[in-house]
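Here is an idea for our session: we take a single protein and study its fold together. Once you have written the record down, we can walk along the chain together.
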Amino acid sequence: MQQWMGQFYDNITLCDLGYVLNLGHNGHSCPNNMEESGGNWFCDHFTIIHSTGIFVHQLNWCRCNDEKVEDWHLQLLRFGIFPSTVIKPQTVFTFDVLDHFLIDVLECKTSARSFYQKLC
């Protein structure tokens, strides 16, 4: 994305514009996740790897149904993205990029590093 800066267009991200990815509640913030209740349920540097590139977003976790920090990876899977780790994930992969990686590995013998560089 680009934004007009008065004399030229400059690259900008959704994170720069203040977009926050909210898990649960159809994209709306969780009513149980108030800012004053602790910063553990907010991530200001969450990396999403998709076939069109690598994106950094802010993320709010859902606190409903007695969710625990240990269950964050399950929230991500319900949202349709695959966490890079089970404990406090901060990087995820879309299933689309995982499918593309599988095809590249099987057909072209592409290494993970080469695939990552291609996404960058």
Notes: The beta strands are 2-4, 9-11, 20-22, 42-50, 53-60, 81-83, 91-94. The helical segments are 72-79, 95-108, 112-119.
